[in-house]
Amino acid sequence: MHFSQIFLVLWCGLSLRSRVLAASAAVSSAPVISDITPDLVASVGDDIEFNCTVENVGRMSVSWAKRTSEIGSVVLSMRNILSLSDPRYTIVETNDDKANKATYTFKITKIEATDMGAYECQVILTATDKITKKLNLAIKHPAIISEENTPKSMLVTEGQNLEISCHADGFPQPTISWERENRAIMPAGGSSFDGQTLRIKEAHRLDRGGYYCIASNGVGQPDRRLIRVEVEFRPQISVQRPKIAQMLSHAAELECTVQAYPAPAVFWYRNGAKLQSGSNYKISNTASSHESTTSILRINSINELDFGDYYCNATNKLGHADARLHLFQPVIPVPSM
Ligand SMILES: *[C@@H]1O[C@H](CO)[C@@H](O)[C@H](O)[C@H]1NC(C)=O
Ligand SMILES: *[C@@H]1O[C@H](CO)[C@@H](O)[C@H](O)[C@H]1NC(C)=O
């Protein structure tokens, strides 16, 4: 072996040794954030404090900072000095010189909603290097139902399934329950339902009405919102007097009642022809309730040709229905006054 080769091996071995030594010395004296207060939940008006304990603190500068975005933060304190003057803030430095450690206690009085967020304890090592640990401060706030994510009204065709979802914000996360207006029984039975999504299976016209979404999280009053449910269905006709007896030259009224939603178009027919209001007939359609239309065909003065069948026909976008009414001359004349 040549002398220079021996020297190289020796030199390499020595330099490796010294580097290991330097590294272990650095580890034992590097500052460490040994303790930070766990995540906090506070209510508006509370006083809180949180701690950061640093070992091997030496002459390092320890700061509390508040995260303002993913990457941005604002420094609140450095060592025992506030860098942001807010009368609600206090910083206390507690040194344990023997153990070479220090605790930085950051206090906030009269908590406000805007105090929520991440707080970071930072030990500045160099201009470009720091060690950090953070805690999250959550502020309780009441449940609020989200306007844009919760419908005001829903439309369903009878026989179809319907799902209504309600979304609420708040901390802690609100729970959602449902009730019907006027304390009506829920479609699936019972007086209420717990869950974010209300499901109505094979909707029935009786399921129509107002449903309350109620969001609560134990903070303040629960929030509630009324959601209107409309159930569409095809017309159905009922006739109380399908046979009407009346004498010549007298007036007669033929009446049919149509259940339908949306509101139906109701027409009267005789011998295949649509009847119009005029000198002999008068037709009046009246909505007697949300889903009910009453149609009356009035014949002012009956003549011979008016006896026979009349049809009340009702149509909406879901279908059609009709009923037959019969006008006849009584065999025994009705005594006139
Ligand atoms: C913070 O540290 C101080 C001093 O060590 C202690 O009295 C206090 O209880 C600690 N507070 C919390 C929230 O850990
Ligand atoms: C009205 O109902 C009658 C009886 O079913 C039917 O013959 C007629 O075609 C209907 N008219 C219309 C315009 O739907």
From TrEMBL:
Signal peptide extent: 1-22
Source domain of life: Eukaryota
InterPro entries noted in UniProt: Cell_Adh-Cytoskel_Orgn, Ig-like_dom, Ig-like_dom_sf, Ig-like_fold, Ig_I-set, Ig_sub, Ig_sub2
Matches recorded under Gene3D superfamilies: Immunoglobulins
Domain Ig-like: 31-132, 142-218, 235-316
Keyword Signal: yes
SUPFAM superfamilies: Immunoglobulin (SSF48726)
Keywords assigned: Immunoglobulin domain, Signal
SMART domains: IG, IGc2
CDD domains reported in the protein's UniProt record: Ig
Name of the protein: Protein amalgam
Species annotation: Musca domestica
Taxonomic lineage from the root: Eukaryota, Metazoa, Ecdysozoa, Arthropoda, Hexapoda
Gene: LOC101897085
